[in-house]
Amino acid sequence: MDSLCDRFPLHRAVFEGNLRKVSSCLRTYDVGERDVHGNTPLHLAVLLGHRECVYLLLAHKAPVKVKNNFGWTPLAEAISYGDRQIITSLLKKLKEQSREALEERRPQLTTALQELGDFYVEINWDFQSWVPLLSRILPSDTCKVYKKGCSIRMDSTLVDFSDMKWQRGDLTFIFNGDARGKQSFAVLDNEKKVFQRLRTEALIDNLSKGGGNIMDSLPETTRRSSLNPPPKTDMTWDEYLLYDTERLPPIGRPMVLKEDKKTVKAHVAMSEDFPLSVDLILKVLEVVAPFKHFNKLKEFVAMKLPAGFPVRIEIPVFPTITARVTFRDFKSCSEIPSSMFFIPRDYKVSHAFVTRRITFDPSRPHAWKTT
Questions:
Q1: C-alpha span between 319 and 22 (Å, rounded)
Q2: CB 218 within 8 A of CB 209
Q3: Which residues belong to any copy of the Ankyrin repeat domain (predicted)?
């Protein structure tokens, strides 16, 4: 028993809120180590509300995205605890670690793209519904994807589709695997002949809010006071370690469990003769898929599918709406102009894109609004 309780000195120091001991242990022990319940030292610091320990662990690059045995990340536990300062610190570190992870994956991604042949393919989106007349107004789009070397270009007119709202525009996304940071990703508004250079995560946030300047597009934050902290646990370190995970009492805020199950039916047409592979298209989608509907496609393609390539997929995106995605017109191209992957000289830097938001009102099936 003593050997088990002595196995995680850093965890114990955090559990007991001994900041000096935490600082000492960080010189020797792995800041991302998981204990018998899957908790990292950062998990424990957040669960117990030890704010100074949280700051110290984050300064030593404690991982923010790792999950414990219950499936929760430190950020999820922080949101449950309700301390706004801790949540803010974790969010900042999460963005920083996400950027670092992307840069770490970049060489492998660039090499994989370089080894692939150059090609052109179209991804057709057709949204349908069994609701009368709704299918007539739902959007469709044909995304044109060009790949040359480690560069990818995608032309699209459907910017976003979520919550029964969709946005139209004439946008081009260009990824240059040889460039670094903001220089690697650019989005062009072909109607106004302007462009922005954005990091991928900033682009996703920007487009999901309807374009414009990134900071201007963020809604004004509604300030709330932190939640009242949960009662302090009277559990000792030894008791914490000796509990079975399934029977472990809450050491943070007590859990309120709600179970919700959904059955999703999807249809897929596979072809063993299609020249693309699933691995290839996943690499492409990882680069040029900043839209929510593309994320659904990526999640589906990443599933264990039958042999071949999914040339046509029907996936539900809303309770009454299905997206039919078709891969077509694949061409191996050795003569794609390099100029397609550069920003035209007459395009100017801008913070405002032209997009048209269309909203459907289910209570008025004959009416829709364009803004």
A1: 49
A2: yes
A3: 153-197, 231-335
Phi, psi of 325 (to 5 degrees): -110, 125
Q: What is the pLDDT of residue 214?
A: 32
**268-310 pLDDT, tens per residue?**
899 888 888 887 777 777 666 555 667 777 777 777 778 888 8
Tell which CATH classification among 1.10.472.80, 1.25.40.20, 3.90.780.10, 1.20.1250.20 matches the domain 1-115. 1.25.40.20
14 CB neighbour count, 10 Å cutoff: 30
Give 213's DSSP letter: -
CA 186 vs CA 66, 152, 194, 296, 341: distances in Å? 30, 11, 10, 23, 10
Give the three-state DSSP class for 97. Answer: helix
Helices (H), the chain: 2-5, 9-15, 19-25, 41-47, 51-59, 74-81, 84-115, 134-137, 200-208, 214-217, 237-242, 278-288, 292-301
Query: What is the pTM assigned to this prediction?
Result: 0.65
- Using a CB cutoff of 8 Å and minimum separation of 24, what contacts does 111-114 make? 112/283, 113/147, 113/149, 113/150, 113/151, 113/152, 113/177, 113/283, 113/287, 114/149, 114/150, 114/177
- What are the extents of the domains in the chain? 1-115, 118-212+261-349
Hey, what amino acid is at 283? K
